[in-house]
Amino acid sequence: MLRAVLAxxxxxxxxxxxxxxxxxxxxxxxxxxxxxxxxLAVAPSTATxxxxxxxxPIDFDVRSWVALGMHLGRDRTTIAVADLRGTLLATDELxxxxxxxxxxxxQAVTWLRRLAARHAGGAQALGVGVSVGGWVDPxxxxxxxxxALGWRNVPLRSRLERSLGLPVLVESNVRAMALAELWFxxxxxxxxxxxxxxxxxxxxxxxxxxTIHRGPLAAAGGxxxxxxxxxxxxxxxxxxxxFQALTTDMHLAERAVERGLIAxxxxxxxxxxxxxxxxxxxxxxxxxARSIGEGLAVIIGLVNxxxxxxxxxxxxAAPEYLATIRAEARSRCVLPIDAERTILPSGLGADVLxxxxxxLVLDAFYRQxxxxxxxxSTRR
Amino acid sequence: MLRAVLAxxxxxxxxxxxxxxxxxxxxxxxxxxxxxxxxLAVAPSTATxxxxxxxxPIDFDVRSWVALGMHLGRDRTTIAVADLRGTLLATDELxxxxxxxxxxxxQAVTWLRRLAARHAGGAQALGVGVSVGGWVDPxxxxxxxxxALGWRNVPLRSRLERSLGLPVLVESNVRAMALAELWFxxxxxxxxxxxxxxxxxxxxxxxxxxTIHRGPLAAAGGxxxxxxxxxxxxxxxxxxxxFQALTTDMHLAERAVERGLIAxxxxxxxxxxxxxxxxxxxxxxxxxARSIGEGLAVIIGLVNxxxxxxxxxxxxAAPEYLATIRAEARSRCVLPIDAERTILPSGLGADVLxxxxxxLVLDAFYRQxxxxxxxxSTRR
DNA sequence: AGGGCTTTCTTTCAGTCTGAAATAATCCTT
DNA sequence: AAGGATTATTTCAGACTGAAAGAAAGCCCT
Lengths: 380, 380
Hints:
- The structure is a homodimer.
- The first copy, chain A, is built from 14 helices and 16 strands.
- By secondary structure, chain A is α/β, with parallel strands linked by helices.
- Chain A has 3 domains: 2-60, Winged helix-like DNA-binding domain superfamily/Winged helix DNA-binding domain (Arc Repressor Mutant, subunit A, Orthogonal Bundle), CATH 1.10.10; 65-179 and 351-366, ATPase, nucleotide binding domain (Nucleotidyltransferase, domain 5), CATH 3.30.420; 186-345, ATPase, nucleotide binding domain (Nucleotidyltransferase, domain 5).
- In chain A, strand 13 (202-208) and strand 14 (211-213) form a beta hairpin.
- Chain A binds a DNA duplex through helix 3.
């Protein structure tokens, strides 16, 4: 029901009933409960049909509840406050003072408290979504391994729950971003999805039946060392031709430096040069796009999702290569895929990090998995 | 509930309640309904605890219902009758007289009717599972493409339902086999699974949350053209190093002929020679095992299933190479996988084809997806 | 202004499913 | 034959559902 409200903005009860297949009676009962709990509110009625009892549009109550989120990145923490619809009310970025878990957590907690106090307007917080890179076990809320921060087995959830007194949802950043895409991005109407992130690291998240598939080790989505045939670049794992070695920003930038196209290894500089007309720079970026397409073909062949969403600086910084990616994926794939429709760039803008941490909370909320928030129908 | 009965054989109601988490009251109600409908029966009581009211073991009623199945292969049709537990009551193989859909279907229907009449003992048939190679759309029951039989867009289900008057479930053979593994094989206790078949063709099936994931084109599990780096064998698709080109029986047999190891391209002959001590023959098989392991590493990294099940003549005919497959997969995989536990050979014997067609019916039955069979609790 | 008309929303009612707890059943032990 | 132990059944109340009847709230028309 909440999904119908999310998807269709302010919406009258009778439409909800039609969309969800529930009876009007059930919708009324549920909405009264949700109105009482402060999750929904009556929206100002817009001009509607000129006959019959007027529609009463229902919408999320953006005043009484908020979701909080934080993304713990290599160099900075992004914190966010958002309403139930996922609209960001405020975000902030904090440069790390130190990378020790204790210091990062302390800083994030302090500033998140402050941000919430200032922008939540007295609303209650549903919970806190924590998006963090590397290998994460969401069930226990533990960061198993994060090279960027140098963390190993950090019990993030228990620490944060203790100091914030709110439900905390820890998840890998790639999976969090996939959820954001699923709720607020281009994948809202899709059942299965593979989200592919290509930036300084590469990773994927698999969604089947609108549920993230994590696997027993919470490690599903590992595409870094998928072997591609198109090159023999050496990967940090010691092997040759890994997807990671061919597609990360860093790899490309280093190649460009080797070839004297740019002075410092920076992907932005390389894109700049390519846009300036440099043939070899463009060739490098084209080659990466083909590698990405090649990898996608493998993923699409194996998983055949409704949709593939591409994200990360490796894709968004130079969208002009999307066509190459699509063409390569299509030609490598035995399936007759419609690449224009099934391979899409991320629908989230610059606020991906903030949105993705928020998506963790709202996903749990919509699924009724949040510990203290359960909705049952009222009977009088 | 039925799953508990399937897993734990004859089992008293109170145990079912404990296993399923239902209350004893609900279990009683459901069992009485299922007993009345002839799905369950009271089993002969075995000697049990020597105090208290004796347990009444409940088991499937193997007399009043059966499942029927057929596998349409390249050269022959396998037909089967089985009880609700999946135990085969009778199977038969029919060589095709012709490969036209009409001829194959007519023959299969005739003989399946006869087999059922003879071995079902008056039991009703739940439905007919049809396992067929190639690209199949199970929703519409259409065989989109099957090269072995030369079929294109054959509306198999509608034809069979008309002539048999029973619910018909059409599914690709690989997915049917994965279901059989899920219900009767080594994957009964597992939530997610990738089933990898390697024989004259290669293919996979993906199970997440004990449900087959098919994807929008019903094409999930395509691993044939996944690129491996270990060789440059040319695939029928025109590319180099495809998984298919490196691992099918036919490919291996042809290689062996090229190298003069055997006279006729036959995988069995090659295995024979290798077992006889031929170094180059063994090297060929070892190389295939490593290729398979390499492919598995990609699959495991991406999907991270609870379990990988290997099947098909490419694996079962020469089980001595399983260790190589596992070792290669483990070494190629960045995850710390326990290959001995998570990569297993199929748990089904020679009756795979029959069992897999039966699994289609029982899977639908257990999920209550069979059109005329729905169970609701009784109230008096 | 007030009675129809139309549509939305609410309430009533009956039905289904559930589990807790009381009750019945059935065996073994003494 | 009574007592004990345990399983199976029934009774009961609670939760949820949809169908249908009823109330509400606007417009239209005279």
